[in-house]
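User: My collaborator sent over this chain with a note saying "see what the structure looks like." That's all I know about it. Can you take a look?
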Amino acid sequence: MAKNRNQKRDSLLVLIALESRDEAQKLLQKYGIERATSTRDLEDKLSRLYFTSADKLTLEKEFADIHPHKKWIFKTLQPPVEVKEEVKVESVSEPKSNCSGCKCGGACGGNCGGNCPCKAQSSFDGGNTQKAVERQDSNQIEKYMGLIALVAVVGITFHVITKANK
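Assistant: Without extra context I'll predict from the sequence alone. Here is the result:
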């Protein structure tokens, strides 16, 4: 594949070949490659070295060390500022029920003084309030179902409109 000789060459290896010739020649020598005769030859040998290298990460670090603008980059760039946020964790203890014989396990808040509201909500067979507690939980979920459905409909409508415009 022939390259256009008039094509502008911009790459890291061109920059290193043009601006850091001595260091690049030493790098080639380190890897047992003969000395380059021209800038173009140096660029080609650095390129071949990179593409045939098994440990590209180490070679990239060596390229970074001989980069001609390394000092300027470190001088002008400031390290990122780390912001640490404190996370407060509150311990939540389960309320102990004062209910005698209450089977809700303290779901009534534990401060009913023996007159547990869940005792009043019993089934026909004299069963306990576990079903009443489950009904309370499902009622809270049902409060948000309308909002979830509305968000879903708006999202689907938006998706259909954007696909139709393409």
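A starting point for your reply to your collaborator: DSSP finds seven helices and no strands in the chain.
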